[in-house]
Amino acid sequence: MAFLDWLREHDWQAWLALSIVLGMAEMFSLDLILIMLAAGAVVGMVAALAGLGAGLQVIAAAGAAIAMLALVRPSVAARLHAGPSLEVGHGKLVGQQGVVTEAGTALQPGRIRLAGEIWSAAPYDDRLTLEPGQAVEVLEIRGATAYVHPIPSLEP
């Protein structure tokens, strides 16, 4: 019974110790569950400091932990797991601009300088013709051919 008496007299310290232990355990699990429980323990500590009874402390701690798990953890976990997308290969060229070096049509592809390389290119719109010196934007890559659309110029 000595432990229970000590616990009643030092209830906020017990909540603090529990939150520290849960926080340290989170460092090993890295699943963001134990840190949410630690936040609940901090709320229990605040309730103990406010002079609430043991039952209300437990209810406050449990409510805060459940709220953290339901409301905070999903968005934090989503942010941590969503990193930058890594585009490799031809996909990274879509949206980039190039310059036509050799005229081309839908039936007879021409050439463009794109990202420091020469690519075969055809207009995305079959009715257009690519003219040398024209700026184009890559809309799609199929095989080794870039399908492009001319970028309108503001020159008179």
How helical, in percent, are the residues?
Answer: 40-55%
- Weakly predicted, low-confidence segments: none
Count of helical stretches: 4
The number of distinct β-strands equals 5
Average pLDDT value? Answer: 89
What's the gyration radius in Å? 32 Å
Write the H/E string, N to C. HHHHEEEEE
Strand content: 15-25%
Cα(first) to Cα(last) distance is 93 Å
Shape by Cα distribution: rod-shaped
Q: Largest sheet at a glance?
A: 5 strands, mixed, barrel
Which structural class best describes the helix and strand composition?
Answer: alpha+beta
Sheet with most strands: strand arrangement: 1-2-3-5-4
Please describe what this structure looks like.
With 156 residues, the chain is of the alpha+beta class. Helix content is 46%, strand content 21%. It has helices at residues 2-9, 11-29, 34-49, 54-81; strands at residues 97-102, 110-114, 117-123, 135-142, 145-150. The protein has a 5-stranded mixed β-barrel. Strand 4 and strand 5 (145-150) form a beta hairpin. Helix 2 (11-29) packs antiparallel against helix 3 (34-49) and helix 3 packs antiparallel against helix 4. The longest helix has 28 residues, at 54-81.
